[in-house]
Amino acid sequence: MRELFIEIFASLRKNKLRTALTGFSVAWGIFMLVILLGSGNGLKNGVLSNFGDYAINSIDLYGGYTSKPYAGYDKYRRIALRNEDLEIIAREFPEVETVAANTWLDSKTASYGDRFMKLGLRGSLPQTARLEGIHLAAGRFINELDVERYRKSIVIDEALKRLLFRDADPLGQQIRVGDSTSRAVFTVVGVEQGTANRTNSYAYIPLTTAQLMYKGNDPEVSNALFTIEGLDTDEAMQDFENRLLARLAAEHRFDPTDRSAIWIGNNLENFKDFMLVFNGIDLFIWIIGLGTLLAGIVGVSNIMLVTVTERTFEFGLRKALGARPSSIVRLILTESVLVTALFGYLGMVLGVGVMEVVNYIIEQMPPSDDGFGGTMFLNPTLDLSVAVSATIVLVVAGLIAGYVPAHRAAQLKTIDALRHNR
């Protein structure tokens, strides 16, 4: 085997320019494949990051307007979700695991001392933090006692903490929320993790407190959010949605087939649709990348054919001295795989290096005002499975590139090879 590699490297050194140009075509093909795969991976990670830790197996419900007349009611009637609907969903549907809800309020002014800031305020249930993937930098989220006792507890974000409290600890401090005509004092119990540099701010208070203070104790909620378990097929999911809509239709007296009355947002279906799209993108990238690599394979194959032509007399002499055709095939295939793998790995390393540089630049970018990272392109690096796949592609490419020349060399007749160019 050692003699085989010595012979191959001697042949490559003899034709340095030809070997370099051939290797460049292979390196470029693998380089572009890695760049394309990394870019596709970065796009997928960026889009999926918008889900954050949001519960994927969850459903959002929003009230809407009827589009059909029903039981004496005219169409275009507003349907609003209420606290009773949350109890119905939790009690009557065994597939439902956890139920949360929110009610969005008008923009308010929060103040502490002589500092103030506008913020978006919403009333929430404790389960909202888990279902929406809300992380805390300090303290806690709204809890059950807050809801039961209508406490004036508030969870602020880091933007509000930075402006109102600067470097001081906000936990346990009281802030004023509202204007001079309707101002309430809330106790800070937690700080939501996020960016402290955004210009808009959000805060959470108990749902019951929000309904009592700002909705006239109206039990209406802006949305209901709940997780589901055990629905493994599209048919089961569709049946669940139909049963859910029918039950809410009976409660609010609208047509059970009227999907405009209650808007159902299925996050699991949205996630599956995203993954289907990105699987298609991955397939497209592999096709384009392999097409680019194919150009390099053709170049290697052509060069190996030239090598066989140049060494025809040598191969004839080998056969005359008793060499088997398999030894010649092994020589050609090994040289082809070696050239392809050597330059292919060089291209792959360069491609991975470029993606790492891009990833480093993205990580240094400041987060956006919304706190979600500010980019649709995130972590465009390749995992181990892609590296293994690229390795397999390299080996297969080398074998394909060397097969035709090797077969041609093996089929040479000894007498014809010895007469070649003689």
Write a brief caption for the model.
The protein has 422 residues and is an alpha+beta fold. The chain has helices at 2-14, 16-49, 83-92, 128-131, 144-148, 158-164, 207-214, 234-252, 267-310, 312-320, 325-364, 384-410, 414-419; strands at residues 58-63, 81-82, 96-104, 108-112, 115-124, 136-139, 153-157, 174-177, 184-192, 202-206, 220-221, 223-228, 262-266.
Question: Topology, please?
Answer:
Layout: H1 2-14, H2 16-49, E1 58-63, E2 81-82, H3 83-92, E3 96-104, E4 108-112, E5 115-124, H4 128-131, E6 136-139, H5 144-148, E7 153-157, H6 158-164, E8 174-177, E9 184-192, E10 202-206, H7 207-214, E11 220-221, E12 223-228, H8 234-252, E13 262-266, H9 267-310, H10 312-320, H11 325-364, H12 384-410, H13 414-419
Parallel strand pairs: 5-10, 7-9
Antiparallel strand pairs: 1-12, 1-13, 2-11, 3-5, 3-12, 4-5, 4-8, 6-9, 8-9
